[in-house]
Amino acid sequence: KVSRCRQRRIRTAPHDRCAVWFKRAMQSLSATSLAALGLLLFFAEVLWLSGATPKLFSGRYGRLHRLLGALELLWLVVGAVDAFQRVTLYGTPILLPWELVYDVVLGTLGTLTALSAAWAFRKAHASSRIDNVASGALDQTSTITVSEMLEHSFYHKLNLAQVLFLYGIPAEETRARLALALLATTPWLVRSWYPVNRFSDNYKRQGTSGWSLFGVLYRLKKYQYLLYKHFL
After folding, report:
1. Neighbour tally for 56: CB within 10 Å
2. pLDDT at 23
3. Does residue 97 have a cis peptide bond before it, meaning omega lies within 30 degrees of 0?
4. 64 φ, ψ to 5°?
5. 79: Cβ–Cβ under 8 A, 6 or more apart, which residues?
6. Closest CA to 111 of 153, 161, 148, 73
C-alpha cells in the first residue's frame, strides 16, 4: 500500500498540477467569455489590416469621415477590451462606471461617421452614378451608396434612443416605463424621411441568385434584422 503522504506527493506532481489547472481553466470558460475573446480577435485583425493600409484613415479625400471612422474603431476596441474584462474577470473594467458615457459617445460617433460619409461622397457615390447588382458591403463588386449611408445614420440614431431608454427605465414604475418605451420608438415616426434599401432586393432583383452565397447571406441579414426589430 502507498502511504497517504506518498499519495499527496504523487497528486501534486508538476504534470498533475498543470492538468488540474487546465481542467479548471476549461471549466471556467463560458460561451460569453469565448464570444468576448472572439470579439477581441476580430478587432485585432481589423487593426492589423488597418495598419497595413495607412491611407485608409489618412487620405485627404473624405478626411473628416476617415478621422471619425478611426475614432469609432478605437472606441469599439475600448468597448471590446472592457467586455472581455467583465466576462473573464481579468482586471478591472476600464469603463466602470462610465457605461452611459461610452454608449452615448459610440452612438454619436456612429451617426456622425455615416453622415460624414454621405457628405464627403455625395457626388461620387450618388445612386444615379452607381449601378449595383446588390446593396450593402457583402458583394465585393458593390459600392455603398449615399442612400445607404443616410439609412445607416437613421439606425445609429435609433440605437442611441434605445440605449438611453435602457438606462432610463425606472425599477418599478410601470407608467414611466411605458412612457419611456413610447418615447424610444418615436424615431420610427420619421423613418419615411430616410431612404429605404430592402434586403430582399438583393436576392429577388433581376440578375441576382436567391440561393447563391450572397443571396443566403442577405437572407440571414434580413432575418437577423427582423429579430432585432420585433423581438429584441
Report:
1. 14
2. 61
3. yes
4. -60, -45
5. 95, 102, 106
6. 153
Residue 220 grid coordinates: 440571414
Grid-cell match 469565448, residue found: 34
Q: Please, what sign has the CA dihedral across residues 127, 132, 133, 137? A: negative
Amino acid at 141: T
**Res 226: pLDDT:** 82
The three three-digit cell numbers of residue 103, written as one number? 454608449
CB atoms within 10 A of CB 148: 22
Say which residues have a Cβ less than 8 Å from residue 134's Cβ, sequence separation at least 6.
Answer: 142, 201, 202, 205, 208, 214, 218
Helices (H), the chain: 4-11, 14-28, 31-52, 55-58, 63-88, 99-120, 146-168, 174-185, 201-204, 213-230
Question: Of the candidates 141, 142, 146, which has an alpha carbon nearest to the alpha carbon of residue 127?
Answer: 146
Closest among 56, 71, 165, 167 to 111, alpha carbons compared: 71
- The predicted-structure confidence for 111-125, as pLDDT tens digits, reads as follows 999 999 999 988 887
Weakly modelled stretches of the chain, pLDDT under 50: 1-12
Give the tens place of pLDDT for each residue, 171-206: 667 788 888 888 888 999 999 999 888 777 776 765
Torsion (CA) 51, 55, 56, 62 in degrees, nearest 10: 150
- Rounded Cα gap, residues 86 and 30, in angstroms: 13
